Predict the 3D structure of the following.
Amino acid sequence: MGAIENRGPQLQGVAYALLAIAFVSLLLRCYCRILIVKNFGGDDWMMVLAMISFILFVSCALVGVHYGTGRHFTDLKPEDASTAMMYWWFCYVWYCITMIFSKASIGYFLLKIVIDRTQRIIIYAALSITVLWGAIFFLVTVLQCKPVSFFWTRLLPGTPQPGTCLDIMIIEAITYVYSAFSIISDFTFAILPMFLVWKLQMERRMKIVLVPILSMGCIASVAVAVRFGYIKKFSDPDFLYSTVDIAIWSTTEQGLGIAAGSLATLRPLFRKAAAHISTRSGQSGQQDSSHLSNDIVTIGKISRQKKSRNSMDLETNIVQNDIELESVQEYEQDSKQRNSKGANRKSKSIWSSQERNNESEEKLYISKPQEY
């Protein structure tokens, strides 16, 4: 008798790896937002909920592997096959919840740094479509059998209860549509920051650094694209064995979505680490870490009303919680003398809070750099 073919360990390895990556990324995000930025917002809570759901997904997937996910029906006892199918059903539930919250977190994060009305409308539209189709996919897959438990009890000998399930072709079709919208929304969230950053008047090097950081949320769409080729496996009679690839890439999608969405918020942590390394390497003679931290300007809220500005001011257009992008309104045109050792510039920041039209506004004015 030959060895029993089992692809369960493949799913286990992927699940453990992606869970670790997502968990570490989220921990770094929480550290950055709570201790460095000191602003733990709604997008952070959504990602925490996504992580909790992902943990439950991985737990169900691992228990499913124990009972038979990854093996042929012919190699399993009916009771074990039924239990494995039950945990597969629970994976449907946690997968949908994880993806809804993780995508909502990324969309909400972008809304906090985007000011342009058209871009905000696009983000709202992409976010709404993603959440709507996520909810539809959730309802269709979770309620595909009536009663719900018939999804797994139908495998038991002498089925204890009658029931019906949707045609599997409907499940495949809805999965194709959901995956397509998921990819579209991911790339929408990735492309908008590119236009956002590229229009700013800043060094090209800084733009090159910021664009991939803000666009990391689209990484998960790679897993979705790969999964397209396996969706037809849903109709394979040997379900637990044939759908392992779907399970693997769905796990990858969730883990990468959480990790990428979290890494996109870590720029303040990277800058703090860079300042620390610079100090330790002896390059802090001219600029220590506390001086560097003063260059990181975080604004809690930016009014979107058009206001007159002094020609000497630098207006921060897009700075929210953990992304610091400065748009130069106007620089003074006359040339400045520099000594042979270089000039050290210092800026004084003046916060002014004002109440206008029942709207709370905060504006940062940066005075003219002084040279010494």
